[in-house]
Please model this.
Amino acid sequence: MKIVVIQGPNLNMLGTREQHIYGPMKLEQIHAQMKDVATQNGLEIEFFQSNLEGELVDKIQECYGEAHGIIINAAAYTHTSIAIRDAIAAVNIPTIEVHISNIHRREDFRQKNMIAPVCASSIVGFGPFGYHLAMMGMIQIMNEIAAAQEAQKKAQ
Ligand code: DQA
Model:
């Protein structure tokens, strides 16, 4: 099974940007840890980062028929992008959204979340560890899908 990790604008600057909010860890380090977990659990994993809304929409669409799960941090687009929300709804793939910071405790403009209603789950405020929690959640979802498929096969 394949998981695609999609990272939105400015997350390429993790480790540099606003360290008091996002911490010192770089995106490459987060991805290396996720890759280890994926390998240990026999999952394929792909990483994608873009600062452009349309490229994020394209990547979500590419997941259709290709990926079994999506982990996304849409970053600032979380609060504005109907296009990203619609893309997630369109592909209908189990999706977990991650936010490094606790967006609920931050500015008013971060209180609107366009993405959460079309996601299986949201993980916020755990720092980079949130990506690890998302991997655990995704593995659980993948196991449940595999078990349901197995049960269906037996019933036929
Ligand atoms: C973020 C929170 C967003 O509000 C912000 O625009 C980001 C990062 C987070 O991971 O905490 O760029 O998604």
Summary: The domain at 2-155 is CATH 3.40.50.9100 (Rossmann fold).
